[in-house]
Specification:
196 residues, single chain, two-stranded antiparallel ribbon, alpha+beta, 2 domains
Length: 196
Amino acid sequence: MVWDFIRIVQKALYNPQTHKLAGSFEGTKMNRSVILIISLLLLLPISACGLDLGVYRFISENNDYRHQWAMNGSSSYVIQSSLLDFSVDQGTYIITVSNGNIVSVKIVQARWLNSVTAADFPSFEQLTIEGMFNYANLCAEHSWDWKCSFTYDPKYGYPTSIVINCSNPDLCNEDIKATLISLGPTPTMVTNKKLP
């Protein structure tokens, strides 16, 4: 944690135009010592406030993958998402999203649901790519109690797996898996077809 913070301070003090560290100590042998002292002085009050740099890293990674999805993905896609939790939505679904909005939900396997109507679509937002990215913000807000693990698709950047555990398993234990089936401006329902 300390070394992560020191790297953050180094980035803040680095001047990309001169490729040197900013400040009056530039060019002296004290560069590393000064950075270490500044980092430790800044770290003390931050650690006293309870800021976890792991949360910063987690949010930063999620934002990098969100950007990758924005560059390589689409606002229209078909995704197969599985939700394992204690809600009535537990099951596997094929969700079609067009221009960022759910337009259909097909049940592949569900524990309690027999059918899904358009009125039910808001409860499936968490299973869309955008909804899965938003889970990272919830995890950061609840970092004191939740243990979150995200896995991302290396090509498109969308979350492929989210595991959330907390001290009270009845409140927040969830396991979400996602597989992108179709990507494009006008998605169609596709079965047994994988992306290249």
